[in-house]
């Protein structure tokens, strides 16, 4: 997936002000103004002046307005916004839980984007950073936060430069009542997990912690740390300006609003698209123009789930996708063309995820490589009647047995693969692997750091 | 006071402490290597390791007490924990003090095991290995009984047991390299009946 | 008191004492790590469960109050 080209073209579009047809060729279904990328698509640049001309100033609270936080949370609740970082948790509940008085909270803007096949947070920070920063300032005012920390991955130089530029533009003005700092963290897969990110901010190892009770707040130093995904904050900034109904204009009753989706794989126009929630899966990937017949789509990222072509009519919502074995996750869709081998791709994913284990929990450290090996053997196609039983046992051995959701995601992804590619599985176990096993992968090349390259 | 009884007690409790500390060390290695059988489950080996270590410390305490109380030679109270502060056989008694200091550190951190960081506990616990050459030099240097054949045999057997246990520990840890040091998987099935077949005793 | 067993998977380093003391409720997977199902501990096993929690060298095995239904 040429993620790099999409980002580069998006960034260059920002600089020149010209829209980039490569990244999104489809008109949104809602008024451009109330969407995340609408302004940028219309040719506006990412600087502060352009942002204010397009959206106007953010409705930050006046001094001493003590009822404002409650009203803001009520607005978010009315909009039905859910987190766009992967968990789809209702944002108003998260704000309300965090708003109970704690000493010196820090708002963490999570733009870590550990999913290799995701580019939306980078696009947001490069193309519409001020929307994200507006949302961060609004959320920080609700929580009484004393500072905002934006976290990006340290090797994404362009993104870092863009967000720092945006932060500098606002610093000291009325638009930044809460000071913002930008930090670069190491870009491992699990590094963007909430507790892992906070651990790194605390000068720790950046590995996820065990949180049997999620109600207990994460801490940075002595104060609470509240983590929100960059896209979620961008939506908050729009909802605060245009009202909850503008958000509900798009999407369905139980899953309102727009969302950013990164489409990649066997498509002619990979990139980040803004879609209305509830659009059918088939329509979403059609925007990216699949190059040939689609066999399946990996939804929700490497820890999400495969959805077969028969289910392409499924609406893009957490509930509907979950019902067919998929997931919304952080908005990732990888299109698998008919000529590819789903089992080989699943094996590559499993091997990558095994390498990305934080190495803290036994079942993950030992179970994920065992799972990957089972899948690699299955892909190779030597006849093995016990393969499925072993695979099932290993899936059960890792599911839910780590401190974070990393092994759970792998379990879900592999289970969905066994269901969606059941015909191929039967052929492989009988010793007849498909020819495509040794063909090129549609997965992003960044994962080859861990696995072996395509033979 | 000075009495040959005190002197015999010092030597005797010293030797007994040596044997007990040997057993403690071997049991500790058995614990760390996750050796377990039906008859000797892991939790009981750990329990025995802990209890023997307490007994060993008790005998060490007697060993120190009798040696300080014995006024035939002068070893001050401070010399117990301050190395090389004794005027009598400064070096050899001093080594004994070093050994006591190390073992006190191990004992205190183990008592407070769950209040300190796991890495700290572990690092200090490894100091127990260091206490061995110190204690053995102390024994040979003090010298009183070292001319006797059976004492030499006893000391050498204890040395062999501890060295063997340490080598076994190192070889197992080396084979498990590649994972975080704290993550020691049960790759070896215990001798005898596999652990999962243990039935609960009523 | 309604108690459930929770295992801290980060702290656990597969000593296996919990499975030795409480085989009715704890089994070990093929790598030696405990498998617990999260159901409430029966009253007659509560003492053994407390002992298992005490004996765990890493304090990974904990007894927590069962969530109110």
Describe this structure in words.
The complex is a heterotrimer of chains A (455), B (202) and C (69). Chain A is globular, with a radius of gyration of 22 Å. Chain A has helices at 3-16, 38-41, 48-55, 68-79, 91-99, 120-127, 129-143, 157-170, 194-201, 230-242, 244-248, 281-287, 318-323, 342-355, 362-380, 387-398, 406-420, 422-429, and strands at residues 106-110, 147-153, 180-185, 218-220, 223-229, 258-265, 271-276, 294-299, 305-308, 332-337. Chain A is of the alpha/beta class. Chain A is built from 18 helices and 10 strands. Residues 1-30 and 448-455 of chain A have low confidence and may be disordered. Helix content of chain A is 42%, strand content 13%. Chain B has 5 helices and no strands. In chain B, 28% of the residues are buried. Chain B is mostly helical and 202 residues long. Chain B is globular, with a radius of gyration of 19 Å. Chain C has 69 residues and is α+β, with helices and mostly antiparallel strands. Chain C has one domain (3-65): Alpha-Beta Plaits (2-Layer Sandwich), CATH 3.30.70. Chain C has helices spanning 17-21, 46-55, and strands spanning 3-7, 27-28, 34-35, 61-65. In chain C, a hairpin with a 5-residue loop joins strand 2 and strand 3. Chains in contact: A-B, A-C, B-C. Chain B binds chain C through residues 31, 34, 36, 41-43, 46-47, 113-114, 118, 182-187, 195-196, 198-200, and chain C through 11, 13-17, 19-24, 27-28, 31-32, 48, 55, 57-59.
Write the layout of secondary structure elements.
The complex is a heterotrimer of chains A (455), B (202) and C (69).
Chain A: H1 3-16, H2 38-41, H3 48-55, H4 68-79, H5 91-99, E1 106-110, H6 120-127, H7 129-143, E2 147-153, H8 157-170, E3 180-185, H9 194-201, E4 218-220, E5 223-229, H10 230-242, H11 244-248, E6 258-265, E7 271-276, H12 281-287, E8 294-299, E9 305-308, H13 318-323, E10 332-337, H14 342-355, H15 362-380, H16 387-398, H17 406-420, H18 422-429
Parallel strand pairs in A: 1-2, 1-5, 2-3, 6-10
Antiparallel strand pairs in A: 4-5, 6-7, 8-9, 8-10
Helix pairs in contact in A: 1-6, 4-5, 6-7, 6-8, 7-10, 14-15, 14-17, 15-16, 16-17
Chain B: H1 4-32, H2 42-69, H3 90-111, H4 118-142, H5 149-175
Chain C: E1 3-7, H1 17-21, E2 27-28, E3 34-35, H2 46-55, E4 61-65
Antiparallel strand pairs in C: 1-4, 2-3
């Amino acid at each position: 997936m040429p993620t790099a080209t999409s980002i580069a073209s998006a960034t260059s579009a920002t600089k020149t002000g010209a829209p980039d047809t490569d990244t999104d060729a489809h008109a949104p279904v809602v008024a451009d103004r109330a969407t995340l990328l609408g302004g940028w698509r219309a040719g506006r640049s990412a600087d502060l002046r352009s942002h204010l001309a397009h959206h106007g100033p953010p409705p930050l609270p006046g001094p001493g307005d003590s009822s404002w936080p409650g009203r803001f949370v009520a607005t978010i609740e009315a909009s039905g916004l859910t987190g766009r970082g992967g968990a789809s948790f209702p944002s108003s509940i998260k704000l309300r839980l965090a708003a109970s008085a704690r000493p010196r909270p820090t708002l963490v803007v999570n733009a870590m984007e550990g999913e290799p096949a995701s580019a939306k947070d980078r696009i947001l920070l490069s193309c519409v950073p001020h929307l994200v920063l507006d949302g961060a300032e609004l959320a920080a005012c609700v929580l009484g936060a004393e500072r905002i920390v934006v976290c990006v991955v340290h090797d994404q130089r362009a993104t870092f430069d863009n967000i720092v530029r945006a932060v500098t533009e606002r610093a000291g003005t009325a638009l930044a009542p809460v000071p913002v700092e930008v930090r670069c963290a190491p870009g491992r897969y699990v590094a963007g997990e909430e507790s892992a990110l906070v651990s790194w901010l605390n000068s720790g190892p950046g590995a996820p912690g065990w949180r049997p009770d999620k109600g207990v707040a994460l801490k940075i130093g002595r104060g609470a740390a509240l983590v929100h995904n960059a896209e979620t904050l961008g939506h908050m900034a729009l909802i605060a300006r245009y009202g909850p109904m503008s958000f509900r204009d798009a999407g369905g009753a139980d899953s309102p609003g727009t969302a950013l989706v990164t489409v990649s794989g066997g498509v002619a126009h990979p990139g980040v698209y803004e879609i209305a929630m509830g659009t059918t899966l088939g329509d979403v990937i059609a925007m990216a123009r699949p190059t040939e017949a689609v066999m399946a789509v990996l939804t929700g990222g490497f820890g999400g789930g495969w959805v077969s072509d028969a289910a392409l009519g499924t609406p893009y919502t957490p509930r509907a996708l979950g019902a067919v074995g998929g997931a919304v996750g952080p908005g990732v869709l990888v299109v698998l063309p008919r000529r590819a081998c789903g089992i080989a791709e699943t094996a590559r994913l499993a091997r990558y995820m095994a390498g990305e284990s934080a190495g803290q929990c036994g079942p993950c450290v030992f179970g994920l490589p065992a799972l990957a090996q089972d899948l690699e053997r299955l892909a190779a196609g030597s006849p093995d009647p016990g393969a499925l039983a072993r695979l099932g046992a290993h899936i059960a051995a890792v599911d839910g047995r780590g401190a974070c959701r990393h092994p759970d995601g792998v379990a879900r992804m592999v289970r969905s693969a066994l269901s969606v590619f059941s015909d191929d599985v039967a052929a492989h176990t009988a010793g007849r692997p498909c020819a495509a096993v040794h063909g090129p992968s549609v997965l992003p090349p960044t994962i080859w750091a861990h696995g072996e390259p395509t033979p | 006071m000075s009495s040959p009884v005190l002197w015999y007690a010092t030597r005797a409790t010293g030797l007994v402490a040596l044997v007990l500390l040997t057993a403690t060390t071997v049991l500790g290695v058995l614990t760390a290597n996750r050796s377990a059988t039906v008859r000797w489950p892991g939790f009981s080996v750990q329990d025995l390791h802990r209890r023997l270590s307490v007994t060993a410390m008790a005998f060490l305490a007697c060993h120190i007490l009798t040696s300080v109380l014995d006024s035939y030679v002068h070893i001050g109270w401070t010399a117990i924990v301050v190395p090389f502060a004794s005027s009598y056989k400064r070096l050899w008694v001093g080594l004994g003090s070093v050994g006591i200091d190390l073992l006190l550190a191990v004992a205190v951190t183990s008592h407070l095991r769950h209040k300190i960081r796991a890495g700290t506990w572990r690092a200090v616990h490894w100091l127990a290995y260091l206490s061995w050459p110190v204690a053995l030099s102390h024994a040979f240097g003090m010298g009183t009984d070292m001319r006797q054949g059976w004492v030499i045999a006893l000391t050498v057997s204890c040395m062999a047991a501890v060295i063997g246990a340490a080598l076994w520990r190192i070889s197992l840890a080396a084979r498990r390299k590649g994972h975080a040091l704290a993550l020691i998987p049960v790759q070896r099935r215990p001798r005898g009946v596999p652990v999962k077949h243990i039935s609960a005793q009523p | 008191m309604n108690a459930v067993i929770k295992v801290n998977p980060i702290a656990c380093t597969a000593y296996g004492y919990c499975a030795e003391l409480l085989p009715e409720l704890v089994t070990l997977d093929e790598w030696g790590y405990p498998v617990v199902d999260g159901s409430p501990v029966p009253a007659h096993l509560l003492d053994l469960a407390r002992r298992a929690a005490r004996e765990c060298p890493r304090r990974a095995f904990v007894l927590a109050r069962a969530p109110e239904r």
